[in-house]
Amino acid sequence: WTSTRSSWRSWPAPATTTRRWSSAATRSSAPPAAGRSR
Predict the structure, then answer these.
(1) Burial of 21 (0-12, 13-18, 19+ CB in 10 A)
(2) pLDDT by residue (tens digit) across 14-36?
(3) Which one-letter DSSP state was computed for residue 10?
């Protein structure tokens, strides 16, 4: 089950995260990496 969990947790996580920070970046007009790093 570890392999399956890593698989499904590896593909849906980045997709949602990318869409989330993308929206925030466009709204904040700033890079997500800089805002998240600081």
Answers:
(1) middle
(2) 555 555 555 555 555 555 555 55
(3) H
H helix or E strand, kind and range, residue 1: none
Could you tell me if 24 and 35 are in contact, meaning their C-beta atoms sit under 8 angstroms apart?
yes
Beta carbons within 8 Å of 36's beta carbon, 6+ residues apart: 21
Q: What is the pLDDT of residue 24?
A: 56
What dihedral do alpha carbons 4, 6, 7, 12 form, nearest 10°? 130
Q: At 11, phi and psi to the nearest 5?
A: -90, -40
What letter would DSSP give residue 31? -
Helix (H, G, I), strand (E, B) or coil at 15: helix
